[in-house]
Structures are given as structure tokens and as C-alpha cells.
Amino acid sequence: MRETGLPFDDIRQLASNLPKIDENALRHTSAQLDEFNPAAGRGVRRICEWYSAWSGRSPAVHRAVVTLFAGTHGLDNRLTDNTVSRDLHEMLAEASAGNAMLNRICHQNDLGLKVFDLALQIPVGDISEEAALDEKGCAGTIGFGMEAIAGGADLLCVAALEPRISVSNLALLASLHDMDVSAIADNYDLPEELLKKILDNAKGHHANPLELLRRLGGRETAALCGAILAARSQHIPVIVDSVAGLAALSILKTLDADSVHHCMFAQSPDDQLAGLPSEIGVETLLPETWCGQGAEGVAMAAGLVKSSCLALQGKQ
After folding, report:
1. What percent of the chain has pLDDT above 90?
2. Which candidate, 68, 52, 20, 66, places its Cα nearest to that of 221?
3. How far apart are CA 66 and CA 106, in angstroms?
């Protein structure tokens, strides 16, 4: 990204100039399926066509990469007496040692794995009292997230490491989707007045999703925005999971309606969030919650996409 006087200007420019769908590749794959594999089920067909439409080539995944982002929040730490940060460090340590279920799923499906520690020792600001980030820090974290595609990939699978759902991402989703604050507070065991206070602090910024992200979002959500945009700029289809992933997709959809069409959501979210992928405009790969953690869910969904793309192997 070129530098300007306003950090968010480059993000907005990138989002407004993303590559469009490749209609020729989509038609070619549809015709190939009709000719060589007419018995392919609707699920396999939609995955193959989606992959070709956004990669610009026949469906074949050779270098799928799972990229995870981890960030800490001042408010979550306060509400849980730092338990959430300790749990996050334990998740990172287990994945780094190769002992997590995530590692086994990645090994089974031949997936690369990257985990980014986003300054865990410096939580973003307590969003009930102050903005989470300044504009320069938020834009810089979006830019850092773009490193997800460094080294190359032909399928990017992104999520946040989430020991528990962050108040930050619930607030973003409530704000962007006009959700029932009382129901969210009750369902996720949060003080309703606290959530209302957070949303009041963000009033007047709904038309500017990057400003909303700066005020309410965490580093993991900002980095996910960057990863999704970078992948689109390089014609890489994306699988997204985690509640932070839902928040990132919502921010980008509000920023530019076309910016998330190259994405699929890994597994249907639970409870009040179940309808959000459809509202955002992305399809869901797994029809229910298969894994409690989004990191595991996105890796499992990647295996489904890789397998589906074998439908035309050797036929092109």
C-alpha cells in the first residue's frame, strides 16, 4: 500500500479496487463438470465453481494455508481477571508445540499453519472507557494481516484464536447488524448496561466501518480484515471462521459490498449468530458447528474444499 496522510485512505482505496469475479473461469469449470463429472453433488459443484470464479483457474488446491491471529483485550482481561489471556497463551503454546487438535487436522489435510501473536502483552484499550486503537495502529495491524499470503497460497483459511468470544467482536456485530443488545447480553452472560455503554461510545460511526473497527475492534479482527483483502487482491479464495472472522467480514462488507464474495464461512455459528454469514452474503461450508474452536473449524472446512476440488483432477 502506498502511504497517504490518512492511514485508512489506503485501505479504502484497496477495498474499492479489488479484482472482480472471473466469469470465464466459472463458465469453464461449469462446462467441465457437466462433461466429465455430471454426477457431482450440489455441494461439490458449488465449491468447485466458487474456487474457479475467484482463483481464475480450474479447481485444484496445492498450497492451502491456515493462518490464525491472536490478540488480547483490556476489557476481556478486566471482566475475567486475566483468565482469557492465560487461556490464549496456553492455546498458543499447545499449537506451537504441535500438540493441539488443530495440528492434527492440518497434518491430516496437508495444510500449512501460521499463527501470529499480535502483541499479546499489550491488550487493546478497554472499549468501555476508550477506543481500542488509534488510526495508525489499526491501519498498521490491517497491513500486518496482509502478510498472511506471504510465501504464497492458493487457498487461505483464516480465523482468530478465541478462548472465549470477545466483547469487542460481539459489540461490532451488534452495531453493524442492529442486533438485540438485551438478547446478546443475556446469551453471552454480559452486563447489559456495559454493552449499551460500549455501543453508545460508537454511535455516529456506523457509516465508517474502519472507524468502528478502530474504536471497538481488536488486533485479531483488524488483521483478519487485512488478510481477507490481501487474498482477494491476489485471486486467492478464502475460508473464514471464528466470531472475529464474522466481525471482519461484516466490516469489509460495510466498507465495500463486493469485498467478501471470494470468502466462504467454515461452519454455521451457534445461537444468535447463526444467520450472520447469509446476511453478510457468504455461503457456509459445514451446516452446523463441527468444532468448538474456529481455528479447528476452518482447518476442517479446508479439507472439505480440497477434497471437492478433486472432482476434475486429471480431466482438464
Report:
1. 90
2. 68
3. 8
Contact 157, 239 (CB under 8 A): yes
Using one digit for the tens of pLDDT, what is the confidence trace for 96-144?
999 999 999 999 999 999 999 999 999 999 999 999 999 999 999 999 9
Dihedrals φ, ψ of 37, to 5°?
-145, 60
What is the rounded average pLDDT for all residues in the chain? 93
* Helix, strand, coil shares, percent, the chain, to 5: 55, 10, 35
Q: φ, ψ for residue 76 (rounded to 5)?
A: -60, -40
Give the domains, in start order, of the chain with CATH numbers. Answer: 7-312 (3.40.50.10210)
Burial per residue of 125-164, b for 16 or more beta-carbon CB atoms within 10 angstroms, e otherwise = bbbbeebbbeeebbbbbbbbbbebbeeebbbbbbbbbbbe
